[in-house]
Amino acid sequence: MRPGQGNSGRILILKNHPDEGIGLYGRRLRRLGIAHATIQVHAGETIPPLESCDAIIIGGTPVSGNGGGYHDFLMEEARYLKNALDLEKPVLGIC
Fold first, then answer.
1. pLDDT tens by residue, the chain, 95 residues
2. How far apart are CA 2 and CA 75, in angstroms?
3. Which residues, at least 6 apart from 84, have a Cβ–Cβ distance to it below 8 Å?
4. CB distance 17 to 42 below 8 Å
5. Please, which residues have CB within 8 angstroms of residue 92's CB and are 6 or more apart in sequence?
6. Nearest Cα residue to 10 out of 39, 34, 45, 33
7. Residues linked to residue 40 through DSSP beta bridges, in sequence order
8. DSSP β-bridge partners for residue 71
9. What is the pTM of this model?
10. Is the dihedral of CA 12, 17, 19, 22 positive or negative?
C-alpha cells in the first residue's frame, strides 16, 4: 500500500517478543510515509479493533508454533488474525 493509491495504508504491527521486530520492513514503512502502529502483544498491550487498520504485520517469536497454547497472548492473537483473514485483510507474518 502506497500513499495516494486510494488506501490510507494504516498498518498494525503485532510484536510478539521484545527482541523480535519487523526489521527492514519498518524502515521501509517510515521511508514511504505509511502510517503504522506497533502493539507490544507480548507485554499485554491491547490489540485494537480490526477497523483501526488496513493491514497487519506480525513479528516473530522464539516460541514454537506448537507451544502457542501455553501463551494466552498468542491464542488471543490467533483469534484476531483469523477474524482479519475472514475480513480479507492483508496479513504478513515475519519469522
1. 333 343 457 999 999 999 988 888 989 999 999 999 999 999 999 999 999 999 999 998 887 666 656 778 888 899 999 999 999 999 999 88
2. 31
3. 50, 56, 91
4. yes
5. 25, 55, 56, 57, 58
6. 34
7. 15
8. none
9. 0.83
10. negative
